[in-house]
Write a structure and sequence with these properties.
The chain has 231 residues and is an alpha/beta fold. The chain is built from 7 helices and 6 strands; from the N terminus they run H-E-H-E-E-E-E-E-H-H-H-H-H. The protein has a 6-stranded parallel beta sheet, with helices on one face. Helix 1 crosses helix 3. The protein is globular, with a radius of gyration of 18 Å.
Length: 231
């Protein structure tokens, strides 16, 4: 069963056509990127390269990549920059309402020919030439899964791992209100590729640096209660 709603198919086809025609790509997420952005960028970069030979894909963000995501395939391809140089056929923006949300590291008018705007927040300004904005989606990972699913290519394990990490973190391990039946269906398809749910959980939630443990301890030993101990 496909996870792509028929009403969205023309939009996904439009995005895939842009990817197939483009030669140079720039992927940018919001400032201080989280696991959903990083996972989405890595999975999308993989798809772009599989859709045609000779494609150049650069991943830039304004902000450090979280160290705990170092186990994701392609982690070293994600760059923290203050400004992006050069011109690209296609910019794919992940979870950004506009250039300011990217940290203004790239000029949308002069440095890119086409903009594909991916987001799952209603506040998005629809600034792209193509806008795939779905406030009902739990995460960027869900949107990118649908693009891969529509492409006709078989989702590989590396892409599934990146998307699963993005989905798990943006839903709070499927605890938040943005978790839908479709979210669980997509998660099942990701797990079917052979990724280890236990390993993801350990790396994302149960591994801390010494500094992180000390900060965690300090925070809990300095708790202050307010509003008659209700907060």
């Amino acid at each position: 069963m496909s996870s792509v709603n028929e009403a969205v198919q023309p939009l996904l086809d439009q995005i895939l056509q842009i990817i197939k025609e483009g030669k140079s790509f720039c992927l940018i997420g919001h400032q201080n990127p989280d696991a959903d952005v990083i996972g989405g960028e890595l999975a999308l970069a993989s798809l772009i390269c599989r859709l045609g030979p000779g494609k150049k894909v650069e991943i830039y963000n304004n902000g450090m990549v979280p160290r705990y995501l170092g186990f994701l395939p392609g982690y070293s391809q994600v760059h923290n920059v203050q400004k992006v140089a050069g011109h690209f056929d296609v910019l794919i923006s992940l979870e950004c309402s506009g250039a300011d949300r990217m940290g203004n590291i790239l000029d949308l008018k002069t440095q890119v020919s086409k903009i594909v705007n991916l987001d799952h927040h209603l506040s998005n300004s629809q600034f792209g030439h193509v806008n795939f904005v779905d406030a009902k989606a739990s995460s960027i990972a869900e949107l990118i899964f649908k693009i891969i699913d529509r492409s006709g290519l078989k989702l590989n394990r590396e892409e599934a791992l990146s998307l699963y990490v993005g989905m798990v973190t943006d839903t709070g391990c499927f605890r938040y209100g943005n978790t839908t039946p479709e979210t669980h269906l997509i998660a099942a398809k990701l797990v079917e590729t052979g990724i280890s749910v236990g390993d993801v959980s350990e790396r994302v939630y149960m591994s801390r640096t010494e500094g992180g443990m000390k900060l965690f301890t300090y925070a809990f030993t300095h708790i202050q209660m307010e509003l008659d101990n209700k907060a």
